[in-house]
Amino acid sequence: MIPTAPRLDRIKPSPSGTMSQRARDLRAAGVDVITLSSGEPDFDTPEHIVDAAAAAMRGGQTRYTNIDGTPALKQAIIGKFERENQLHFKPEEIIIGTGAKQVIFNAFMASLAPGDEVIIPAPHWVSYTDITLLAEGVPVVLPCAQNHGFRLQPGDLAAAITPRTRWLMLNSPNNPTGSVYTREDLAALAEVLRQHPQVAIMTDDIYEHLLFDGRAFVTMAEVAPDLKPRTLTINGCSKAYAMTGWRIGYAGGPANLIKAMTKLQSQSTGPTSSISQAAAVAALNGPQDFISVRAAAFQERRDLVLGWLGRVKGLTCYRPEGAFYVYVGCAGLLGQKLPDGGTIETDTDVALYLLEHRVAVVQGAAYGLSPYFRISIATSTALLEEACARIAAACAALT
């Protein structure tokens, strides 16, 4: 046996990935499980993007590219930032990675010294804290109450900043809650950040185009241009373009940080797939009208799930403003008795109980705020209806 490195003791496997794997294992054993634990659109990658990838392969674009990305994709990203976010970057301020997760990983590994702090509002995506820990940083998790829309409040941010704070992590639309920061929200946080020039801002905008009820998207560097020199704006093709398997993430930020991230990437994955990059050029430069159609489909599914689960005793549902998740409050289930005589004590117990009823969800503890569980609405209406019926039956069986 080969011993593993002590640094791995700081982190845990992705809870959402673990729950999805459990569901796959059950299905392989013949159990009919509906998986609502995966953050992956169920739509196909649009045909013009697939065609661009095929053309790239036939055209010989199958070799290594520049570590930080092809000139063509960098120009497409620069155009996207200018067109959609009013942000202006130079090629040396852009990096392309193998998914947005790698971009975040590179940024923290390239910038954090042991003991440096990263402020992470909760609920948060499961990987933010573990990437921080792997980079020898200290995650400072700030719970954000549902009555504030799960959004970080300026006073809480100000109270959390210390001389060791190096980053503030922002994610809007948010995974897992679907909450969206408004221009006014970001402007208020910017006022706090102006008093602390040592704090950099990382914005994870991966769900930018998946907005509901006519909401508009804004990002911190757009709202507060004076903070752009210390902001890393992260995005990717996975969610809006249904390209999760293509593994394309990117960021715009200060040239010195991008250079350091590129140096790190040169000794890890190297450049992203040349074929995926060619597809991403087509995604960013090509037709965009299908995105709003798919966002509308997610909104319909949201409304369906809210209607179903809003009638289930013991559950409460925050109304998502974007992304494709519903963060379900389950405080009303705690203390109830299971059919086998046990007791529901945590939201992890709830998630495991629902898995017994053939629905895979992810417990709120994974996202830093309990008692909740997250369900993904990135699946068909028929499956969502059946999953909600199973959840309702499971809750009704508690006493």
Describe what you observe in this structure.
- There is one protein chain.
- The chain has 399 residues and is an alpha/beta fold.
- It folds into 2 domains: 6-44 and 290-396, Alpha-Beta Complex (Aspartate Aminotransferase, domain 1); 63-285, Type I PLP-dependent aspartate aminotransferase-like (Major domain) (Aspartate Aminotransferase, domain 2, 3-Layer(aba) Sandwich).
- It contains 13 helices and 13 strands.
- The strands form 3 sheets. The protein has a 7-stranded mixed beta sheet with strand order 2-8-7-6-5-3-4, with helices on both faces.
- Strand 6 (200-204), helix 8 and strand 7 form a beta-alpha-beta unit.
- Helix 4 packs parallel to helix 5 (127-134).
- The mean pLDDT is 96.
Secondary structure elements and pairings:
Layout: H1 15-28, E1 34-35, H2 47-58, H3 71-85, E2 94-97, H4 100-111, E3 117-122, H5 127-134, E4 138-143, H6 154-160, E5 165-171, H7 183-193, E6 200-204, H8 220-223, E7 231-236, E8 249-252, H9 255-266, H10 274-285, H11 289-309, E9 316-317, E10 325-329, H12 347-356, E11 359-360, E12 362-363, E13 372-376, H13 381-396
Parallel strand pairs: 1-11, 3-4, 3-5, 5-6, 6-7
Antiparallel strand pairs: 2-8, 7-8, 9-10, 10-13, 12-13
Helix pairs in contact: 2-10, 3-10, 4-5, 4-9, 6-7, 11-13
